[in-house]
Design goal:
With 457 residues, the chain is of the alpha/beta class. The chain has 23 helices and ten strands.
Length: 457
Amino acid sequence: MKATQFVKDAEVKAFDAEHRRKIRFNIGKYDAAVKQGLGWYDNHELARDRAAAIKSEVVQHLDRYLLQFEENFTRQGGRVIWARDAAEALHEIGRIMQRKHARTVVKAKSMTTEEIHLNPYLEKNGIESVETDLGEYIVQLNGERPYHIVTPAMHLSKHDIANIFVKHLGIEYTDDAQKLVLTARHLLRDKYTSAEVGITGGNFLLADVGGVAVTENEGNARLSATFPRTHIAIVGIEKLLPSINDLALFWPLLSTSGTGQQVTVYNTVYTGPRQPLEKDGPDEMYVVLLDNGRTNLLAQPDKREALQCIRCGACLNVCPVYKNIGGHTYETTYSGPIGSVITPHLAGFGENKHLSFASSLCGACTSVCPVRINLHNILLLNRQQSVREGHTDREERTAARLWLQAMKSRRLLNLLPARAKNWVLLRLLGQVGWSKRREALQVAPKSFNQLWKARKK
């Protein structure tokens, strides 16, 4: 069961001193950069207000903006594929690969491709899929899933990366970061020119111009979208912005919240395949609009604001739970607070309801969200939904029922002596791990009710 494994993995990671040292060091660098980046804003809170208002407008009228995007994108020669779930998305992508006789794919960093498990699908069909983002390339070499939404290899030190390169690429050991980067660059350059298909995600979809906006620091998305004859962008349906003019607000807000930069190095808008007078670009461009459970959130007015997320990763960096148990413990595409909020809706409550309980509810995630998603409140609503839908364990339901009956009846509460109550508490709380790191709870020899009666006598 995923919940049981989660608890086991969380305990291992929480007491792994070396893992915690790496994470705190790397997140500490990001925290310092973000603090400096926020200083460039004259009024950061106003920017958050405006961004939240725009994204809320989009979510409330998602159907209208999706159709507007499709109309404007197809007018420029692009093709839109609507995918209800991962299986449909993979099927349609597979058909494109067959038509193009694709043997190699270059892939820019994209969480939606991780969400639908694109790499294993392509590998199963005999197609080489090469991650071109350096962090993604490193974790792909090491056979891992991304550790963090923004920085996939955050859990690795320079020494770890050097050893991965020695093991999988056969190079001589070096801890010189520049040499390691050049090694990866040299190996990837030939892949861009030989690949038949390039795949990217999309940070934003622009309804008014039919564009896919991609922001990056390494330029690999541009190379992946430009050299291959076919470009496929796989984007969640919630990534819409009404206008290209909104990028002036959202691009800096995304980069500042994520990495502390005023704006990332490369910012590109793809509006379709190469036009007759253009010298470069793909012959064909597809946008896969992925639902995959997002409409489950859209159908719930009290939780749909989670679809406003712009995937900056700020909530992960500030979360005390994430910083202690790490990204891989979640065993999901999206980790941290935002992952705990959306994963049960995307992948089912039955297997993922435990994620919403993996939170201190301190509210730090809500305080840093650039689009003001009330994350810790939605976590509480998820917990409520999991109980209402019967996803709790039998022991938990029994304990809650007994507690409820006892709280409603003073007579029942006084029926058991203190020693018996202590035994019950030890049993029930022991099952959920309460007593493992804490002293066992002890009931007073006499209840307040009994003491009051004695005093009145």
